[in-house]
Amino acid sequence: NLIMKSAQTIGVLVPNLGNPFFSMFIKGVQAASRERHFIPLIFGANHDQELESYYLQELIKRAVDGLIIASASITGEAIDNILKKNGIPYLLIDQNGGPSLDRIRIDDTRGGQLAAQHLVALGHRKIAVVMPDQPTQNLTVRLAGFRQTLQAAGIAFTDANVVHSPMTKLGGYQATAAIVAQQPTAVFAINDETALGLIRGLHERGLRVPEDLSVLGYDDIDLDEYVVPKLSSVHQPVVTMGEQATELLIKRIHNRRQSGQTVDLPVDLRQRESTGPVD
Ligand code: RIB
Questions:
Q1: Interface ipTM above 0.95
Q2: I want to staple 235 with a disulfide (CB 3.0 to 4.6 A). Which of 141, 144, 172, 220 is the partner?
Q3: Residue 82 domain boundaries
Q4: Residue closest by Cα to atom 9 of ligand 1
């Protein structure tokens, strides 16, 4: 029987399909959807609020059964006006709209702490951070964990040590001059894409990683193992995040009344070649 009661579709919105973090997330979404006989409709919102509301509206018109929104630009307003008003089950990942009823919780405090501990253990005391100037909640928490650990180690770190740039390869690349101007011995890039762009920029200026400057990323995307030097990073279990988000959403679609569920997922440090001791 090919005719189903519902179309068994979920909409998935991510900020940037070009970032392997989100293709890995989608891999998890697809695996879990397939198992439950759902089909995901996937869109990249390109960090664009208008495009994002457009896709949201269109997905709702097409009567998707639920939505996973991993997009940084969604506003609380869009959530109220589009999602809540239409009574559609949804799950938010990594953004500002306030927690959804069901949640995938990643320990960003710990991620930031692990990043700082790693650099401190290598003897770094002049450390810079690259991140967006309007960070989502998870990034704010990540930075807070990082800062906390540096402070506990007696290392001076202020807002002046944070260079702002979009969370992309180009953003990281364009942050190079501002980073170099600070003369840090180590940089914590808030995600791997930023780290990769920055490493390119440093290379063009004749700076060696990690000999002149250590660079630590965050996410642990698959590229990390293939670039030179291999990128040290904080691992997020992103495929599992995609699977679990889908599981929770489909459970919610089947049972609107159950209480909110939270899945906690851990992070850990993957030391590779881009971080090393201070000379
Ligand atoms: O690379 C994408 C980044 O944005 C990740 O660190 C993720 O946590 C998201 O917020």
A1: yes
A2: 220
A3: 9-106+237-267
A4: 94
